[in-house]
Amino acid sequence: MSAMHAQGLQLAIFADPDLELWGIAAIDQQAGLAAGGLHAGMLDPTPVDVAIDGDTWSLHGSGCELLVTPTPTGSATPAATPIEHCQVLGTLALDGATRKLRGTGIRTAVGLAQDGGSMRLFGSWFPAGQELGVLALRRPGASSGEGDEISVTARGEEQPLVLDPRLSTTYNSAGEPVRVGIELWLGESEDDEAGLRGRRVAGRAGGASVSIGALRAYAFECVTRGEPGTGVYVLADPLG
């Protein structure tokens, strides 16, 4: 996806079920990386150097050597979307030890509006192979929930189209997301209502979080169709 090396905020969120960790890499004026367990509390981001070669990001920093590369999309919202699946491979220093990371992720590139607006990015991953990424952009001045531009990409589904996606979030008194709900329909065609299949994902905050610049990211515990998984929720409010 050429947008993945366009000017603006670039993000990759990821999880590694084997290591029971989550992470985020953010590239803007500077680049930062954070990773840890779902219940690790507040994380400290690490500065990293970034080299971008085509669709491949190379991240280098203290205790960090990672490659972020795109992977094929299975299902997506009909319009072209600035969101894609990716793989995060390499080594990462965690808890005093260097570990081999083999994570799956979601990445995006977002142009930052100078007069406000907001972004929500959510990714969830499940052991059976389902992966879901949701990007919700709100225009400057728009009221809550109205007119959000929502893009979705999914893997592990049989149907190629994602239709009528909805993202709902419950916040605590500090403005932190504590629960998330995703509802969408999958199908072969926008006109085949009888053949649509629903997918729902529910999540709750795991306790780990990090701030990188204007971004706030949170680890989530998720479930879909009775299967537990890992999620990452990122907020940028306002943009610019």
Report on the structure:
The chain is mainly β and 240 residues long. The protein has one domain. It is 0% helix and 63% strand. It has no helices and 17 strands. It has a nine-stranded antiparallel β-sheet with strand order 7-12-11-10-17-16-15-14-13, with no helix packed on it. The chain has an eight-stranded antiparallel barrel with strand order 1-2-3-4-5-6-8-9. The relative contact order is 0.21.
Looking at this protein, list some descriptive labels.
single chain; 240 residues; mainly beta; 9-stranded antiparallel sheet; 8-stranded antiparallel beta barrel
- Taking all Cα atoms into account, the compactness measure Rg is 17 Å
Q: What is the number of E strands? A: 17
Widest sheet, order of strands: 7-12-11-10-17-16-15-14-13
Shape: globular
Instruction: Describe the main β-sheet briefly.
Output: 9 strands, antiparallel
In short:
The chain is an all-beta fold. It is built from no helices and 17 strands.
SSE topology:
Layout: E1 9-16, E2 21-27, E3 31-37, E4 46-53, E5 56-61, E6 64-70, E7 75-76, E8 83-94, E9 97-110, E10 118-125, E11 131-138, E12 149-155, E13 161-171, E14 177-187, E15 197-212, E16 215-224, E17 227-236
Antiparallel strand pairs: 1-2, 1-9, 2-3, 3-4, 4-5, 5-6, 6-8, 7-12, 8-9, 10-11, 10-17, 11-12, 13-14, 14-15, 15-16, 16-17
